[in-house]
User: Which sequence fits this backbone?
């Protein structure tokens, strides 16, 4: 392990009561990109009533030579603080386009794939240009791409976000707000920016109390009044699914249906899902 150095970051881990030295160096990100240590897993999103897969979310993983499999929670915050999220995020977009193209070329069933985009990545001047380039390079229909942004990414500069999202949606890209309800929750931004879907933060769904469910019901109603698709995240039990269906939540995602899986396994899930149709 590398010691000290100016590029070592200490992160406070809630619950650990101490500062944990992740000793993840900027140098690691550079090598990870060069050596192709990053890879994606795909988690299906399903229609709440029928269970048919409508799309999937691409989730980043890191095959680290010393640490083994590293999950995004352990390195995305560091990548965001150091700016490495920009090249890493670009790699994710390119990899999703490459993967979709590979599925298409193999004659496999394909659904829209959602990519998580960090605020810093979205706020870059050339964000839209880069997305366009990646789609064109792999000849992928923009309707097969979705971007997930947090409220934070949008509210910092609503006017600029409105323009960028307008351009993306004009191309046919789907836009959703991730972890909705736990960010700024400045509800006024919702009708000012063009979005297609709200992804309800999983804390609302996993909270058993009446409070969490009331907020959730209110958000579903709000989404529907604004003509948005509402997606419930983090569905782990049949009971949670039943409640979401009862509240007319449109789509759901969670371990109850499937964990995020490697591309090859996702293709099998998708093949099984289309047969049900
Ligand atoms: P997110 O975008 O909200 O993604 C959903 C997270 O919830 C994923 O964690 C997923 O594995 C997890 N999840 C899904 N269903 C369930 C469930 O039923 N129960 C529980 N307990 N968890 C569930 P993951 O893969 O560890 O990713 C964590 C976060 O890291 C993501 O949250 C996203 O904010 C970020 N992230 C992941 N990939 C990327 C990426 O390519 N770029 C950027 N900028 N951020 C990413
Ligand atoms: Mg997401
Ligand atoms: Mg989320
Ligand atoms: Mg998130």
Assistant:
């Amino acid at each position: 392990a590398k010691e000290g150095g100016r590029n070592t970051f200490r992160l406070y881990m809630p619950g650990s009561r101490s500062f944990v030295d992740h000793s993840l160096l900027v140098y690691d990100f550079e090598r990870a990109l060069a050596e192709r240590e990053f890879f994606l897993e795909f988690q299906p999103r399903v229609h709440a009533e029928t269970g048919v897969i409508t799309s999937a979310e691409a989730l980043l993983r890191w095959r680290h030579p010393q640490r083994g499999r590293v999950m995004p929670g352990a390195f995305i915050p560091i990548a965001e603080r150091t700016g490495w999220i920009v090249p890493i995020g670009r790699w994710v977009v390119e990899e999703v386009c490459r993967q979709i193209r590979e599925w298409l070329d193999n004659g496999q069933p394909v659904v829209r794939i959602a990519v998580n985009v960090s605020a810093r990545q979205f706020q870059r001047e050339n964000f839209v240009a880069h997305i366009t380039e990646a789609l064109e390079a792999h000849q992928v229909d923009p309707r097969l791409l979705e971007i997930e942004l947090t409220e934070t990414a949008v509210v910092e500069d609503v006017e600029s976000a409105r323009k960028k999202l307008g351009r993306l949606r004009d191309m046919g890209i789907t836009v959703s707000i991730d972890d909705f309800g736990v960010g700024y929750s400045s509800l006024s931004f919702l009708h000012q920016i063009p979005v297609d879907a709200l992804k309800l933060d999983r804390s609302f769904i996993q909270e058993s109390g009446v409070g969490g469910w009331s907020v959730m019901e209110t958000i579903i109603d709000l989404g529907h009044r604004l003509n948005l698709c509402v997606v419930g995240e983090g569905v782990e039990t049949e009971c949670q699914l039943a409640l979401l269906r009862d509240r007319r939540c449109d789509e759901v995602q969670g371990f109850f249906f499937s964990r995020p899986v490697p591309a090859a396994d996702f293709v099998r899930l998708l093949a099984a899902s289309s047969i049900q149709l």
